[in-house]
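Q: Can I see a sequence and its folded structure?
A: Here is a first one.
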Amino acid sequence: MPLPWTKGLRALLILAIDTSCATAQAALTENGVVLCELALQDKKTHSVKLLPMIDLLFQLSGRSLAEVELIAVVSGPGSFTGLRIGVSTVKMLAFARQIPVMGINTLDYLAAVVNRSQEGIVCPILDARNETVYYSLYQYGERIAPYGAEAVSILCDTFGAVFLNQPDKPVWFCGDGVLRYRDLLMRHLGNRFREVPAECLLGRASGAARLAWERMQAGREHGIPASDLEIFYLRKPQAERMLEQTKEQQEAKTNACFASWKAEEDRRNNHGN
């Protein structure tokens, strides 16, 4: 029986998947209600464990892929490899049954675990490696700052300046960046630092399903064909950045060699004259 608050809303069976960090997650919800949810963090890669998790999800819930009306996937930013595995898996499942899909921004998804009436600022942070984090800011369920990628030390200094005149305003942190930079954040923010409960720190796949369901009910977004689904990287993958850097270095070296050759040619010509 539908819950009272869902009366009059269209029921949707949604499969949600999150592979944006080390924990693989999958959930099945109907009309906003969680039917089954699984999370697994071990040494196996997402490519090995994700499909068996989804299969177990259907077994435990007594439902099937044929009944799914939307697949929601956490589509970035986050682990480049994890995101590619999650999005590729969703595309494969969606193509098989012509199921529409919806990408959910990782930062929006993480912020949604915090009570929307909670006082203060919500700041999801994701470890982007090289002492850098992906982040954004939210208040009362609404994003109030652009998605960004910043050195964590600079972000901490920014917080110190922004909240200098608001010493009592708490900042709620979530995401895997908290695991790595907790001490640094606490040093900079002092008693303003807050951390969401451990069970919500890395998000919940059912939260991604909930966001997708709410957006569809509000008419803000609709499912798209799997072929149109893209990863939101926020910044280019490291391999691509290194390739561009190598090309720039090679181009600079070539230009320097040409300049040296040209100078030598000019010297010889001037000497000959």
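Q: Show me another, different protein.
A: A second, unrelated one:
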Amino acid sequence: MSADTYRSGMVVLAGRPNVGKSTLANALSGVHLVAVSPRPQTTRRRIAMAVHGDGWQAVLLDVPGFQTPRDGLTRRMQSTVDQTLGDCDAAIVMLNAEEEIGAGDRFIAERVKAAGLPTIVVINKTDATNPGAIALAVAQAADLVPDFHAIHPVSALTGDGLDALRVSLPEVLPPGPAYFPEGLVTDQTPDEVAAELIREAALVRLRQEVPHSLAVQIEDISATRGGGVRCEAVILVETDSQKGIVVGKGGEMSRDIGTAARKALDLDATCIDALMVMGDVAYDAGRMLEAAKHFETLVGRSNLMAKEDAVRVLVRFLEATGHSPLVVELPTPPASAS
């Protein structure tokens, strides 16, 4: 497809805290990468996630919810939001179908309007309310953002309405190149993805007992001899009393968080570093079929690796396939000119 017909751009997700921006970003991109919890202000930094379509690509920028800064943390979070608006080509203004439009929603709509961005309005959480309330929310949204491109009632949680939203996305994008190659959906490193999902597991289980300033630091990601991935992480809190809450009686809470985090991490197939480690471990152990399968995935992502890593992976892949039942068809070199 030519550069003149391909459409792409940055799309900011703008909305009050806990309106469902991260849930929507995860649902549209098809990969669970951003922490989601019932608590406001779960998202604390800007995260880019690509939505791939036929002839288009929208890069969703999931940012902290718009809010009045109250302390150093919320001031930095709001600064991130303000900067993102200036970097974007379009906006999705998100509203909560369960709640009446308030001063916070009007503040957001005014900021987006001032930025001059083409805007899609998304009314989220329709699964939790009735048709009458949804119809009222649509009417109020039309008054709130009079220059809207489209209004879509959706449930990011169940997926209702998302197909229609995907149709509208390329309509607000300018012509441009793809920012992410096919198969890659985020700018986050494996460590950042792991930290985000572990933090989600902790926030969901701790609810109101520990503030949203809880953080996760990844110490190491490595392969196990059985072909799995071992992730060592530290949960950081502000006080000793919060430490006791995170650990729980007899370590029960920390084990519960760990179990949930492992389940979430198993769903992520974007971790190039982990795949490389697992392939190398299997190769060195002589498990060539297993090694070939890991390296085969990596070969398709070689453009995302350093040149020396890409060459090493390709060489090991070919050697592993030569010692395993895996059949590989390499392109036939062109015949030399006679």
